[in-house]
Design brief:
heterodimer; A: alpha/beta; Alkaline Phosphatase, subunit A; 2 domains; 9-stranded mixed sheet; two-stranded antiparallel sheet; B: alpha/beta; 7-stranded mixed sheet; 12 helices; elongated; disordered C terminus
Chain lengths: 479, 387
């Protein structure tokens, strides 16, 4: 319960006590009015954030997180290491690997694997980009490439949890939920946090819905998954023979029952449930409008490289833009194909063919609509890949957490910039390491939120997305 | 690092002893006195670091025009020092040119091979991937005049009734941040597009509005005139609205305006005219308008630092994109051709070696078998032969 909810809750209790003590039988009526007000207060007011937020003038209104799930290789995308090419096939120097966490290569002889592609320098900024990402050349001057990311978890699920919630402990709120909770959604007819997972590519690994869960935050702030193809959102279509009016009656009846129950239990989750019903009802008309892509001209489809209804990452990027236009606060697109332990070259081709063009198109499309300056776009996965060879099939790379690459763009982020670096073999982030917490702190900062003051009381603690360890805002990448 | 480079540096190190101009003692101090303010390890304008031999080598590795051994005229590093004073590329940027003695010394140094002596403690063989380069600036872009950021204006709170009227008209009204009296007003999700009547309501919150979104508004030129009365406006979005060239005239006095979105309106080059004096304007969105490429380029000339966007599919923008790609592919083609040539030459050498080796092997084997047969034919057999 946030402070305002808590205050409202106490207020209700007091009122209820007063009403019952006064011997009036009107408690329920009074409460329902109050409850109605509490429920709708954030929906009707135009200031949707919780009290005290934003702490500072926001630079962006929303976040689009292009989540390259599985751990894309920094060594074949943006982080060019000629020294690694020299060492190709030779033993990896122990000075790098001694005592370091190893995932699947445990107990094996560690050999260096040189870059498996060529790199060039593009744009006025001379951004280093690999040949796997030809479309990224067009946005070289729009993105800020962070080459010194570090995380703490070396296997997929905990690392996803870490990237999304700032901790490896399951069940904490995701970043999207925190932001949705803190700032609310501009559009009451759509969820404030939407997640889409693309089809296409090969062997997609599972991704747990926990990654967009709301943890201890009220559950209406969790991410709502939209399907990439087929029925976009399950169960929002009225069943055959159920007209809108009847549907409305059902929702009203359920609301009444929930209210009644809330009066007895004061369970804040009932409020969340009521809010969810309301949003879902509105989504019955907003979602079809959102996903009616007939008004997108052919040249836009071509720009993204998408085909209507293909469920691809490219289509999702296009839909992400539409969600952004409609005021959705946090949009997360998962593409789950980046876990290249072997046959890296082949799989990189597949992955990049699915994502390269659309990622670049999204940036350019947001830009031409004037939306990039109010949107933070993040590209990256839960970790990077080892400078060491792994050979499940052809050459590949294992999970790697001590140095990897992500890029960010939009708002007042300095475009065409490179921030931080790994050592000469791409192992450790040596210059200006950026922890996942720093990324979260910077994201919140751009949204006008001071991560140190953005807390939620839970189990006697003031919980934060950035936790209790040091997290810093990357002021150097901001203009 | 590739072998070629290693070889180069090894060569450099070798020859450094004989060089007359000492890089470390004579050249580096010139750079330190005049150039490192912008070309240091941290700042590295144009990705050039002049604070050390390694720093220079880094850029040189990527750009062989930086220094052309023996030819100062072809070396960009020298060339940029002797350009006419009014040329924007002349270095040091915005300062006096280097004195003649220094320039001559640099020329002499390049003539002698631009030898980069390297401090003995640092291994010279590290070609470091340039990192952490705030590379937004390139030498070719004109310097963006540094404007002191204006502090946010101090204004009283907007009258609640005025805010309520805007909300009733379908607007969203948000405080810029908690505790601020400044407002963001948006009609993006309004059920009805804003009209003249809606725009009139803005007068009552005129000092407070810093961000305004009037997407799809159907106002008349008269209605748009309210914009002239919003002195603190920083971000204005009128995309897909009835905004016109005439309406643009109202923007001329908005000194705080930083971002203007005219996408999807019918404005022409005439709308750019009133914008010429807006010193703080940095972003201008012109996709799907009638503004021409030449028009906006002309505007940009007087407004360094202005970022404009005519859209991804604008013919001129698309043409430039294709030209860039053309260059990229030409380079790739040349590189591939050069690689092929090199490999062909290698192949030729290998084939020749093969033929020669085969020939030589045959000769050796013949000699060997001859020797063997002679040997086996020695005493007895010779006798037998002689018989």
């Amino acid at each position: 319960m946030n402070p305002s909810q808590f205050a409202a809750f106490q207020h209700q209790l007091n009122r209820r006590t007063f009403l019952s003590r006064a011997g009036l039988g009107l408690g329920a009526t009074a409460l329902s009015t109050l409850l109605d007000h509490d429920l709708t207060s954030r929906a009707a007011a135009t200031d949707l954030s919780i009290p005290g937020l934003p702490h500072l003038p926001p630079k962006v209104k929303r976040v689009i997180f292009l989540y390259m799930s599985g751990g894309p290789s920094h060594l074949e995308t943006f982080d060019y290491k000629p020294k690694l090419a020299e060492l190709d096939g030779k033993p990896m120097p122990e000075s790098f690997t001694a005592g370091q966490p190893i995932a699947q290569l445990q107990g094996q002889i560690l050999k260096a694997q040189g870059p498996l592609t060529k790199f060039g320098r593009y744009g006025k900024s001379g951004q280093t980009i690999s040949d796997f990402l030809p479309f990224h050349r067009q946005i070289a001057d729009d993105i800020c490439v962070i080459k010194s990311m570090v995380t703490e978890q070396i296997n997929h699920d905990p690392a996803h949890t870490f990237m999304n919630t700032g901790t490896a402990i399951s069940g904490r709120p995701s970043m999207g939920s925190w932001i949705n909770y803190g700032l609310g959604s501009d559009n009451q007819s759509l969820p404030g946090f939407v997640v889409m997972t693309s089809e296409g590519g090969r062997d997609p690994q599972p991704i747990a819905p926990r990654m967009w869960g709301s943890g201890f935050l009220p559950s209406q702030f969790q991410g709502v998954p939209f399907n990439s193809s087929g029925e976009p959102v399950y169960y929002i279509k009225s069943p055959e023979g159920v007209p809108d009016q009847l549907q409305r009656q059902v929702v009203e009846s359920v609301r009444a029952l929930d209210r009644h129950r809330h009066e007895q239990t004061h369970d804040p989750e009932l409020l969340a449930r009521l809010a969810a019903y309301e949003t879902a009802f509105r989504m019955q008309s907003s979602v079809p409008e959102l996903l009616d892509l007939a008004d997108e001209p052919q040249h836009i489809w071509d720009m993204y490289g998408a085909k209507p209804g293909d469920g691809s990452y490219a289509s999702n990027c296009l839909i992400a833009r539409r969600l952004a236009e409609r005021g959705v606060r946090f949009i997360q697109l998962y593409h789950r194909d980046w876990d290249h332990h072997g046959d890296l070259v082949e799989h990189m081709h597949t992955c990049c063919r699915c994502t390269d063009q659309a990622s670049a198109a999204l940036i350019m499309d947001l830009k031409q609509r004037g939306m990039l300056e109010e949107t933070l776009v993040v590209w990256g996965g839960e970790f990077g890949r080892t400078p060491m060879f792994q050979g499940k099939g052809g050459p590949g790379r294992d999970h790697h957490i001590k140095g990897f690459t992500m890029w960010v763009a939009g708002g007042n982020i300095r475009p065409g910039m490179t921030y931080g670096s790994t050592d000469e073999l791409g192992y450790h982030a040596v210059e200006k390491p950026v922890h996942v917490r720093d990324l979260h702190a910077t994201m919140l900062h751009l949204l006008g939120i001071d991560h140190k003051r953005f807390t939620y009381k839970f189990q006697g603690l003031d919980m934060k997305l950035t936790g209790v360890e040091e997290a810093r805002v990357l002021h150097d990448i901001l203009a | 690092m590739n072998r070629q480079l290693f070889f180069c540096i090894a060569l450099l190190l070798q020859t450094s002893a004989q060089a007359a101009v000492d890089f470390q003692k004579e050249i580096l101090p010139i750079f330190e006195a005049n150039c490192v303010k912008c070309h240091n390890a941290e700042k590295a304008m144009g990705k050039l670091k002049l604070n050390s031999a390694e720093g220079i080598q880094e850029k040189w590795t990527d750009d062989d025009h930086l220094l052309v051994k023996g030819d100062p005229e072809k070396s960009e590093l020298y060339e940029r020092l002797v350009l006419p004073a009014d040329n924007k590329k002349r270095m040091p940027k915005g300062g006096d040119p280097l004195d003649k003695a220094s320039i001559d010394l640099i020329a002499a140094w390049i003539k002698e091979g631009a030898v980069l002596t390297v401090a003995s403690t640092a291994p010279a063989t590290e070609a470091v991937e340039p990192t952490a380069v705030p590379a937004a600036e390139t030498p070719s872009t004109p310097a963006v005049p540094e404007l002191e950021p204006l502090p946010l204006p101090e204004v009283p709170a907007a009258p609640q009734e005025a805010v309520d009227r805007l909300i009733a008209a379908g607007g969203k009204v948000m405080n810029l941040y908690s505790g601020s009296n400044l407002l963001e007003v948006t009609f993006v999700l309004a059920p009805q597009p804003p009209t003249d009547d809606t725009l009139k309501l803005l007068v009552d919150v005129a000092p407070q509005v810093v961000m305004l979104n009037l997407k799809k508004a159907t106002a008349t030129d008269e209605g748009w005139s309210v914009l002239a009365e919003l002195p603190n406006l920083r971000v204005l979005n009128v995309q897909d609205s009835s905004f016109s060239d005439e309406a643009a005239k109202n923007l001329a006095g908005l000194e705080r305006l930083e971002s203007l979105n005219l996408y999807g309106t019918s404005v022409t080059d005439a709308a750019l005219e009133p914008l010429g004096g807006l010193k703080r304007l940095r972003k201008l969105y012109l996709w799907k308008t009638h503004v021409t490429y030449d028009g906006v380029v002309a505007l940009e000339k007087g407004m360094p630092g202005l970022e404009w966007n005519l859209g991804w599919d604008h013919p001129e923008v698309a043409r430039q994109r294709l030209v860039t790609q053309q260059t990229e592919f030409k380079e790739l083609l040349n590189k591939a051709a050069a690689d092929a040539e090199r490999l062909k030459a290698d192949l030729k050498v290998a084939e020749e070696t093969h033929v020669a080796a085969e020939k030589r092997l045959k000769e050796v084997e013949e000699s060997l078998s001859k020797l063997t047969s002679e040997k086996s034919a020695e005493p007895g057999k010779t006798e037998a032969k002689s018989e």
